[in-house]
Specification:
single chain; alpha+beta; 5-stranded antiparallel beta sheet; 6 helices
């Protein structure tokens, strides 16, 4: 075979390899719809909790990044939180028992009111629990967001003993208004949810 024919054969094989590999490359790209998990959707919550929110809070939604005020949004992104600002999940009620805290705001005017609710699914030895921990009907809800955190990162051992905190997780309630800034930690102790200011 002449050198010219060899070069032609090599080029033909190379083109064939590219054509075979191309469809694999194209179809192996991630589906953007699947990657977007919509972290602030009620679909991320246990079904009984979804149902309760749909039936009892149909005019409300979970606070999303788009609902945050400029000052709250700046704080959210500066902390590099990757989840939903209106949802926190963790072992808040009891260790090895997942709970879900949600910050609900009106669908029509998200800044006009809020409801801070928490839900713990039922288990073999206990019933489901739902509670409104806090609420407000004044403007300013866009300054608020939630974030889960380990209790031992928020309170040292003496403080945990003082407050009688035994759960692994707590959640933070941020108030990031332009004229004020406050962070409260919510935790379960002595049979009830309680809150305390923390320096963040």
């Amino acid at each position: 075979m002449t050198p010219t024919n060899i070069c032609s054969l090599i080029r033909a094989l190379a083109v064939t390899a590219i054509c075979v590999a191309l469809p694999v490359t194209v179809y192996s790209q991630p589906n953007s719809e699947k990657v977007d998990q919509k972290p602030c959707s009620t679909e991320t919550l246990p079904h009984p909790f979804q149902k309760k929110l749909i039936t009892e809070f149909s005019s409300w939604k979970i606070q999303d990044v788009a609902d945050l005020s400029p000052s709250a949004k700046a704080r959210w992104f500066s902390a590099e939180y990757a989840d939903c600002p209106g949802l926190a999940a963790g072992e808040f009620r009891e260790n090895k028992r997942q709970s879900y805290a949600v910050l609900l705001v009106p669908r029509e005017k998200p800044d006009s009111a809020y409801r801070l609710a928490i839900y713990t699914p039922a288990g073999p030895d206990f019933k489901a629990e739902f509670q409104i921990l806090d609420k407000g009907d004044d403007a300013g809800a866009s300054n608020f967001f939630l974030h889960a955190a380990r209790t031992d990162k928020l309170f040292d051992a003496p403080s945990r003993r003082k407050f009688h905190i035994e759960t692994t997780d707590s959640f933070l309630f941020f108030d990031c208004g332009e004229q004020e800034y406050e962070v409260d930690a919510y935790f379960y102790a002595d049979g009830a949810y309680r809150s305390s200011f923390v320096d963040m």
